[in-house]
Structure formats: C-alpha cells, structure tokens
Amino acid sequence: MNLDKLSIFGLGYVGGTAAKCFRRLGFDVYGVDIDVEKEKEFKDKIKVVDYKEALNQTDVSFICVPTPCKQDGNIDLSYVSNVCTQINNYKPEQIVVLRSTVFPNQISKLEKITKNLVINPEFLREDTAEKDFFNPPFIIVGSRNKELGEKVMKFYDRIETKKFNTTPEEAQMIKYVCNVWHACKVAFTNEIGSICKEQEIDGDKIMRIFVQDKKLNISELYHRIGNPFGGNCLPKDLSVFQFNADKKTNPLIHSISKSNEVVR
To answer: Distance from first CA to last CA of the chain, Å, rounded?
Structure first.
C-alpha cells in the first residue's frame, strides 16, 4: 500500500484546505470535484482528475463533500453516500477517510456501502483554515480496524498535537460536541452582552476578564458528566441573574435551571 499519495473528493474549503496542506507536507495529492473550474484554482499545487484516475493512483481517499440539512433539520447524507458508492463500485478495497461531518447514527449506513471506512473529522475555521490544519486542538481518527486507523494517523506524523484513536461514532460525536459548544458559547456571550448593556456595564470588558480564568471558567472541571448542580452559590446566583434578565431576549440563560431539573 502506497501512503505517499492520497486523493480528496470534494475541493471546497475543507477539501481544498486538506489538499493544499497535505501537499505542503510532501504528499502527492489527487483532487476530485464536480466543479471543473477547480483545476484552475489549484493549478500546479495538486492534480485535479476524474474519480477513476484518482482511485487508480491512490489507496486512500478523503471524502470532504457537503452534508447539509434537510428541511426537517436532519442530515442530508446523499452527497457522502454517492461518493462512497462511486468509490466502492470502482475500487472496493480503497480506504475511505470521511472528513465530512455525519451524525454517529448514520455511520452504519455508510459502512454497508464501503468496508474500509475511517472517520477523521476536521476542526477548521473558514478564515484560518490552513493555520488550523497545521495547529489543530487535536487529531481524531475513528476506526473499527486498528491497523486502518494507524495508517490514516500516519498522514499526520509531522503535525505535533494531541492524537486520539477512537471508534467511528466517538469521532463524529466529538466533532458535533465541539460545534454545539461553540454555538452555545456565542449565544451565551451575546446574552451576557445584552444583560450588561441593560445594567450599563461594558460587556466586552467583562468577557475579556471572564476568559482569563483557565482554572474554572475554561477548564475540564465543569465538563464531567454526572449529577446536576446544587449547593448554595450556583442556584442562588443563577436565580438572581435570571430575575434580572429579560426572558424574551435571554432564553439561554433562563433555560439553564430548567435543564438542571430534567431527570436523565
């Protein structure tokens, strides 16, 4: 098996970033995209070819196609499924590395299509994607086959960060948890901003000081699954804070106590 080459299906910001960065790491990269104009964009950086040529030249393919939402809010798996089917029909022994985000309960559907599936979620911000590729918070590789997982992890040998081998479901759940937490942080910060404004307090200054606390505010100490919060300080201070926060403009703040009361 040749691990000096790889192919990437889907050359949007996720796949395009991976293509450029893997090339900088010294790999031969073959790109596949339905947009024929992509060849002009990448020029000599990578080889943009049809899927058969990409599979003929490589033993490992990274899938970076979109996974949008359907009207009901659930994931549209069609793009990923189509690429997996295309690869399997032409070269069933190909190692398929999924960079696209797929909810854990959908993985079994893809495993019915391709037997060599490995999950490798990305943690990129669109405006700093290449920087994030080389400086990720961690690298996650999820596989049921230890040997396959180790082979995929070798593509990142030159990137120094924490690396975790997990199950496919764990790998995708980590990706979702990160994004949902980021969304929650943005909503929380904006609600704090509106409450500060009502109290004629500089919300930006409050949050700048708030994030300096790495011992408690930004740490693992309040991220351990277990009992609901209790004691004296948290319920009391949350109650007073909610009393002084408009329910209509601060729904997240007011949902905290309700969430804490749910029996799980």
So the answer is: 47
Class of domain 177-261: alpha beta
SS3 for 95-113 is EEEECCCCCHHHHHHHHCC
Q: What is the pLDDT of residue 264?
A: 74
Asked if the 5-167 domain carries CATH number 3.40.50.720, the reply is yes
Mean pLDDT, all residues of the chain: 95
pTM metric for this prediction:
0.93
Radius of gyration of the chain (CA): 22
Q: Is 233 a catalytic residue?
A: yes
Report domain extents, the chain.
5-167, 177-261
Catalytic residue among 84, 184, 196, 233: 233
Handedness of CA 109, 121, 62, 47 (dihedral sign): positive
